[in-house]
Amino acid sequence: MKKVAIIGLGLIGGSIALGIKKSNSKAKLIGFDVLPKACEAALLRGVVTQVFPDLFSAVKNADVVFLAMPVKQTIVILKRLATFSLKKDVLITDVSSTKQEVLDCAEKLWQRGEVRFIGGHPMAGSHKSGVSFADENLFENAYYILTPSKKLADEQDITELNELLSGLSAKIQIMDVKEHDLIASQVSHLPHVLAAALVNQNNQYSKNHPFTKLLAAGGFRDMTRIASSDVHMWTEILLSNQSAISERIDDFVRHLKNVKQFILDGNETEIANFFENAREVREKMPTHQKGGLPNFYDLFVNVSDSPGAIYGITKILKKEKISLTNIRILETRTESYGILQLSFKNEKDLKKAKKVVDIN
């Protein structure tokens, strides 16, 4: 029987615990969180079987410790753990969005034989937060990156953690820590910076052009949705990956300058190529393939502008026991109908929905 300690009982920590329980019925899940309400909710949901009032009590006899918190808090907890008398060869892993700073910290604190450390980054989440929304299927078909320390872990340790995580149904991918942070800076960190910059630019522009905010509709809202992300978390992420994000910003500025020059030169061919290349690349992205970047599947339905239209669709899905992960209305410039975007967890639910919902 393995004793697994989940430190940080939020959406991610709770979902990992439920996934572990799914495939490791004999594992004993225990938890700790600085928020008493999170501990109470975790017990109520059966996410863990026991919670402790302090960090030391939660980890002192643990075989595996998950640190489910942002990067700066993870480093603080690692330093605290180094002052404790932990179980020999305890396996410690984390879930933070950047890995190099965390890995460097662990390698400075311990030697091989004291603890085993493997960095982790489950690349899935939700617009909901808190352990009350923990979901054993949250990471299904999503990538779960492992960045093992060459100093503090070996192949056997990786295999052990992989087996423990098998109930999450995630796509486990081993990656060099530097490569992880470089890729994350491009596909995750830079888009958040650009979204926030576009919103701030729009706000400044609207001071002299008041209708700007009024006319910033569907396309603008879709591009800037992630600007509503957690402020403190994203501040920590940027500061923990400074060099890589700086390079990505410089490279993006170079691309913008190229487009600017095409426009000033009236170069119709290069402008068309700019959009065509982007369109072709995006259409080839594995957005809805198994193991692709997102772990959701979308169905777009035309709905009439009449009372009960949306309710009728959701009623059908409920009757057929098809689970929705998200639902939203996309703006159109027609008065007769709107477009309803229905998001599902897996391809099976998507196919089932297509059969029962009129998409014409």
SSE sequence, one letter per element: EHEHEHEHEHEEHEHHHHHHEHEEH
The strands making up the biggest β-sheet line up spatially as 3-2-1-4-5-6-7-8
* Biggest sheet descriptor: 8 strands, mixed
What would you call the structural class? alpha/beta
Poorly predicted segments: 288-295, 332-336
Q: Determine the N-to-C terminus distance.
A: 54 Å
Helix count from the secondary structure assignment = 14
Helix coverage percent: 40-55%
* CATH top level label of the largest domain: Alpha Beta
Q: What is the CATH homology-level superfamily of the largest domain?
A: NAD(P)-binding Rossmann-like Domain
Arithmetic mean of pLDDT: 89
The tally of beta strands, per DSSP, is 11
**Percent range for β-strand residues:** 15-25%
User: What is the CATH T-level topology of the largest domain?
Assistant: Rossmann fold
What is the domain total for the residues? Answer: 3
Radius of gyration over C-alpha positions, nearest whole angstrom:
23 Å
Shape: globular
Q: Could you say what the CATH architecture of the largest domain is? A: 3-Layer(aba) Sandwich
